[in-house]
Amino acid sequence: MTAIIDYDTGNLRSVAEALRRAGAEFTVTADPATLLRAERVILPGVGEASSAMARLREKGLDTLVPALTCPVLGICIGMQLMCLSSEEGDARCMGIFPTQVLRLPATAADGARLKVPHVGWNTITSLRSPLFDETAGETYVYYVHSFAAEPCAATIATTDYGRPFSAALGSGNFFGTQFHPEKSGAAGARILLNFLNL
């Protein structure tokens, strides 16, 4: 059974629908006992980092999530909350991944203006994880974000938007994607299926 953590953030429905399409058994819950029994856990999220982190703390999940031993996948804000900190709301996060989350630049290296938030399709490269089995080296995925994790030792995929950032992170049983696999077509479905098979 896969558990989707419900901590009052967005995109629960789209993640649940993606799991339904994959034929996965799942539950949506914030119950610690259920999360500890789960075979895998997904931490989704759409919103603002400091508010989302406050909700995790209110539910006691800020200490439970890092203690999980099953495969855990953070999506978008969910991944950011697994980092050390975020500039968004000056949030102290869970510290699972050894990197900080910074605001995306509004100007490219050549001086061109960039739209922030970064919304739409972009490629992931430098893939190095079972999460990306049977995924092409320059696959397009879907983004909606204004902040992104700095590249670090846990980076398992990168995207460039004004500067390189961590498109995905992995450390032990913990994984995260800045992009939304549930909105990334066939490639996203493959990535979710890979997670479900970990």
Please outline what is shown here.
The protein is an alpha/beta fold and 198 residues long. It contains 6 helices and 13 strands. It has helices at 12-21, 32-37, 49-58, 61-67, 77-80, 185-196, and strands spanning 2-5, 26-29, 40-43, 72-75, 85-86, 91-92, 100-103, 118-124, 139-145, 147-149, 155-160, 164-171, 174-177.
Give the SSE layout:
Layout: E1 2-5, H1 12-21, E2 26-29, H2 32-37, E3 40-43, H3 49-58, H4 61-67, E4 72-75, H5 77-80, E5 85-86, E6 91-92, E7 100-103, E8 118-124, E9 139-145, E10 147-149, E11 155-160, E12 164-171, E13 174-177, H6 185-196
* Radius of gyration (Å): 15 Å
The dominant shape is: globular
Order the strands across the largest sheet as they lie in space. 2-1-3-4-13-12-11
What percent of the residues sit in helical stretches (DSSP H or I)?
A: 10-25%
Amount of beta strand? 25-35%
Q: Tell me the total number of β-strands.
A: 13
Low-confidence stretches: none
Q: What's the order of the H and E elements? A: EHEHEHHEHEEEEEEEEEH
Oligomeric category: single chain
Query: What is the mean pLDDT?
Result: 95
Considering the chains and any ligands shown, give keywords for the structure.
198 residues; 4-stranded mixed beta sheet; globular; 30% strand; 6 helices; alpha/beta
